[in-house]
Design a protein that fits this description.
single chain, 211 residues, alpha/beta, Rossmann fold, 5-stranded mixed β-sheet, 14% strand
């Protein structure tokens, strides 16, 4: 009886690491936020990209990236806001069909930031989001800031509760019309499961960088 021939293929560390891709509509605001999560890099590779594309186009871009990725990503998320076109719900359905998760916001990603402070169930414009944020954080909100994760992370449990409560108001949900609403908390909860250690509290004297 012949013995099974042993494979000479080496198992690379990168083959054992769970790979997660986050493809964002915004070029900086969203990816800057997600890059600050203190992920355990010995177990997970989380890549956050700002593509500057909207809804359906962003989903198509995520598919393109996966097709050429080596090794492929284990999980893919698209992060986008409600656009002014009629393909918002269509883009979400297309992503689901391709096995891609969506963290959407109606009307803008900054809604997720606002929910760290209070529960909001009245529609606001993007401009109003930014004005309200400036009031709440005590300084001018900078859209492409690299500090928002550190500045808000202590209030994150409240934001998750508020986002879940808000989403529960819509039955059945209609993302294109449910204003305000956001599923960003779902991506946040997934990333939280992959922490190395919690991030130290934000201090005005300096920003602590994640390990």
């Amino acid at each position: 009886m012949s013995k099974r021939k042993k494979s000479n293929r080496k198992i690379h560390t990168r083959d054992l690491i769970e790979r997660i891709l986050i493809v964002c509509e915004g070029g900086k605001t969203e990816p800057n936020y997600f890059r600050k999560f203190p992920i355990d890099k010995s177990k997970y590779h989380v890549e956050s990209r700002g593509e500057g594309r909207i809804t359906k186009s962003l989903v198509e871009r995520a598919i393109e990236i996966q097709e050429i990725a080596s090794p492929p990503f284990n999980k893919i998320w698209c992060v986008f806001d409600r656009d002014s076109f009629e393909n918002f719900n269509e883009a979400i359905k297309e992503a689901e069909k391709e096995g891609i998760d969506v963290a959407y916001s109606n009307e803008a990603f900054e809604l997720w930031y606002l929910l760290h402070f209070n529960y909001y169930d009245s529609a606001m414009s993007r401009h109003q989001y930014q004005e309200k944020l400036s009031e709440l954080i005590g300084h001018e909100y900078e859209k492409n800031s690299e500090n928002m994760y550190q500045e808000l992370h202590d209030k994150q449990p409240e934001a998750i509760r508020n986002a879940k409560r808000l989403l529960s108001n819509y039955s059945p949900p209609n993302p294109a019309k449910d204003n305000p609403s956001t599923t960003v908390y779902q991506l946040v909860e997934e990333l939280n499961k992959r922490f190395k250690i919690p991030l130290p509290p934000f201090s005005k004297g300096g920003i602590n960088s994640p390990l």
